[in-house]
Each structure stands twice: as structure tokens, then as C-alpha cells.
Amino acid sequence: MSLLRLENVTKRFGGLVAVDRVSLTINEGERVGIVGPNGSGKTTLFNLINGVYIPDEGRVIFNGQDITRLPPYKRAPLGVGRTFQIPRPFASATVRENVAVGAMFGTMGGQLSVDQCLDMADRYIKLMGLEAHSEKPAGSLTPVEKKLMEIARALAMKPRLLLMDEAMAGMHPKDIDKMVQLIKDVSDKENIAVVAMVEHIMRAVVGLVERVVVLHQGSKLVDSATKEALEDPKVVEVYLGHPPEE
User: Fold this and answer.
1) Domains in the chain, CATH or no CATH each
2) Global pTM value
3) Three-class SS string for the chain?
4) What does the pLDDT look like over 149-160, one tens digit per residue?
């Protein structure tokens, strides 16, 4: 059984159709990239998956349950985790407290004490290389450090599906390579399906995901294995503008 299934989801804003009858399946532990030019509907699709928006048409099925109309706070305990393009920390709380919030409201939220949530936060803070910042206010971090903290918070939720919204934007190429390997390792070890939205960082797309879904003007243009998708003439024309570099 698939973990996530979108059935002809459509979202309109006035006369604009931002997502147009998109159907998509994500399996347990699978890593999928969502790419496309600006305005193609990627962020709207993410918001439909995690409940920020309710589709005008279609259904969202997660682990066999219809979650189409559930708000984000009810999807999180089911296993839907999310990072944002612009991190949203609790600025005055410490990094450790911020990450512990993920554990408190994730899939194990009702089963863990506050101390256990803080212990889990320590684990993922270490994983992201943020130990030196653990007791600092989150608002004092650099933009890249905030992204790392947000990934740690999402992982502390123990999600079954992790939506990563441009999590590697602004990172040095060497840091991108490290992050790609880290996410792959955690995904494999904890059987987390990852759906990554990546803006024009081909090394991240090629290194991280097994499959690529290309959106164009709100519709699904291509859904295939990464190399095949990035070499598709339609994708080269509307997204890359040139063949992907080896």
C-alpha cells in the first residue's frame, strides 16, 4: 500500500489554477523530488499535502486514511513532517527547546515525557552538527543554521513522510553533499519517505532522490526516474533550459 496518494487534487485562487488535477503516489521510504519553474505550483502542492490548503477538488490519502480536510496540526501526529523555505523558529526559545517541540507534537507526542523529548532533541541537534548552539536562542542563528535546526525539529517528529521545502538553498556545495548523504542515511535507517522541493540545485536532486516529478503551470509534466526525468526534452525546455550536467 502506498504511504501518500493524491487523487486529482486541484487548487484555485480566484481565476488562477495553481494545481490542476495532480495525481501522485509516494511509497514508504521513497525519496522523490518535486521540481519545476517558478510559479509551477510546487509550494501549493506541498501546502495541500500538509494541510495548509484544502483542495477544491480531489483527495489526499495518507497511510490509507482520507486526510483531505484535516488541518496541519492533525496531520503531524499521523506522520507528516515539514520544513519551510523560510525557517519559522520560536525565536526566543533555545535551539534545544525548538527541536523538542517537534518530538512533543510528532508521532510519539503522547508517549514521551518532556525530558524524553529533550533527549530526542539532543540526538538530532548532534546529527545536524548544532551542538555548540543547543542553548542559544533560535533567533540568533544564521539562516543556514536555522534551516539545519528546522530539519532537526522535523526529524524529531519521527515522521513517516518528510516534506523538505528548499532545505538546502544557500548552502555551500560541500555542505549540500553532506546534507544529501545525511538525509539519505536517516531516510534509510528510519524508513522515512522524503519529498524534496529543490530549486535549481541539480547536485541535490541527482544525489538525493530516486524519482522526479516535474510540475509546469500547475500540472504534472513528468513523473519518472531521476536521470530519465532530467533528460526528458519537455523538462529541458520548460525547466532546465539545457541538458543536465553529468
Assistant:
1) 1-79+159-246 (3.40.50.300), 90-157 (no CATH)
2) 0.90
3) CCCEEEEEEEEEECCEEEEEEEEEEECCCCEEEEECCCCCCHHHHHHHHHCCCCCCEEEEEECCEECCCCCHHHHHHHCEEECCCCCCCCCCCEHHHHHHHHHHHCCCHHHCCHHHHHHHHHHHHHHCCCHHHCCCEHHHCCHHHHHHHHHHHHHHCCCCEEEEECCCCCCCHHHHHHHHHHHHHHHHHHCCEEEEECCCCHHHHHHHCCEEEEEECCEEEEEEEHHHHHCCHHHHHHHHCCCCCC
4) 999 999 999 999
